[in-house]
Structure to design on (401 residues):
């Protein structure tokens, strides 16, 4: 029922608190829907699910990019300037989606590995405030998923509604068996088929764009908990030198677990964010042209929703990466300012090792080329203004109108 479906959004519950792995609850449901997480082979639905998965993957990675660019070759003269921009602004994102699927889907097993690592990290969360902090992180991650769901779904629906008013199909990609100009019935069949396929693409894109944000929130939460543990070192009355040293060693192991958690997703994050960096500027530029010069009210709302989608594909995780770097700096500072002055030599030497290990911040590189940061995100987004400037200087808008 609805209460069960929404329970992972609750900030606190009267029963057991959620473990970290529950942060992927809604995301995993979405990934199962798009065919990326098959059931066990013993399940009676396994081969049916594999067929569904094959259909989705074929549609997203092969048919959709060809359908977009094929329509420009076969039926370019039928496009109005506004319809063309509405289509082409998404076409590059569809090609990017295919690339991101090729990067992520072969590595779906990493999500189970990540959850196993989170389970080990959760074992160190023994204090009530630590368990509550993990629970709040889980609820926050699932709430973020719902926000993404709302934004992405609104874009697809607004595009469909605007097409109904303007009399053109939502994205204008090629459908081999239906010509929307053959009559009202053919139009609604073509528009609805496009909406279904387009919504599947939008939903798949959402799954890929949100997993780094969930990962980043989990990483920050456990970094925060580790920092708090370091602050508590050698503050317990009556604690022996051996007990203090053992607790310090456990903190070092916690830090290594965090690095392992990063290494699980680093390759796929590098690939998917790099693919998005390649097209975000062009997509934003085309969308701004459409919004400024060719949109009516409803198509303008759909284009605005698409601009928001483009922004949240990279901006939140780039911002989280900046916060993670600050968290790493804070951890190093807390280690240095912890209660170590009157500790024994063994404790101090271990602390120096820990301090050295944490001085290298956790960072992510897109495609081994671009650091994933706000600066890089802004630089690639600035290409949008270049696109608009070139179009205005060449008077392309006046020629099209």
């Amino acid at each position: 029922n609805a209460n069960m479906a929404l329970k992972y959004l609750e900030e606190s519950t009267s029963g057991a608190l959620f473990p970290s792995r529950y942060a992927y609850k809604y995301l995993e449901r979405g990934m199962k829907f798009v065919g990326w997480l098959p059931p066990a082979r013993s399940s009676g639905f396994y081969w049916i699910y594999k067929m569904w998965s094959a259909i989705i993957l074929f549609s997203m990675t092969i048919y959709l990019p060809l359908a977009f660019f094929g329509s420009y070759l076969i039926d370019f003269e039928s496009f109005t300037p506004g319809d063309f921009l509405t289509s082409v602004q998404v076409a590059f994102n569809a090609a990017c989606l295919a690339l991101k699927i090729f990067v992520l889907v072969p590595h779906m097993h990493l999500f189970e590995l990540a959850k196993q690592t989170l389970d080990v990290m959760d074992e160190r969360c023994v204090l009530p405030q630590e368990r509550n902090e993990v629970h709040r992180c889980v609820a926050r991650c699932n709430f973020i998923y719902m926000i993404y769901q709302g934004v992405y779904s609104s874009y697809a629906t607004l595009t469909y509604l605007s097409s109904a008013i303007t009399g053109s199909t939502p994205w204008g990609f090629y459908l081999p068996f239906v010509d929307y100009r053959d009559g009202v019935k053919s139009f609604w069949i073509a528009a609805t088929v496009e909406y279904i396929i387009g919504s599947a693409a939008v939903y798949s894109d959402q799954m890929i764009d949100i997993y780094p944000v969930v990962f980043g929130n989990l990483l920050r939460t456990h970094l925060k908990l580790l920092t708090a543990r370091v602050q508590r070192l050698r503050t317990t009355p009556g604690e022996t030198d051996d007990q203090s040293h053992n607790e310090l060693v456990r903190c070092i192991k916690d830090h290594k677990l965090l690095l392992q958690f990063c290494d699980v997703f680093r390759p796929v994050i590098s690939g998917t964010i790099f693919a998005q960096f390649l097209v975000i500027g062009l997509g934003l530029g085309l969308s701004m042209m459409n919004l400024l010069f060719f949109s009516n009210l409803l198509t303008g709302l759909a284009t605005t929703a698409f601009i928001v989608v483009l922004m949240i594909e990279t901006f939140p995780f780039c911002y989280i990466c900046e916060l993670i770097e600050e968290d790493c700096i804070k951890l190093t500072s807390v280690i240095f300012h912890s209660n170590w002055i009157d500790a024994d030599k063994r404790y101090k030497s271990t602390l120096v090792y820990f301090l050295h290990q944490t001085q290298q911040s956790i960072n992510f590189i897109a495609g081994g080329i671009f650091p994933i940061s706000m600066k890089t995100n802004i630089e690639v987004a600035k290409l949008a203004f270049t696109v608009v400037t070139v179009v205005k200087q060449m008077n392309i808008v006046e020629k099209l109108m």
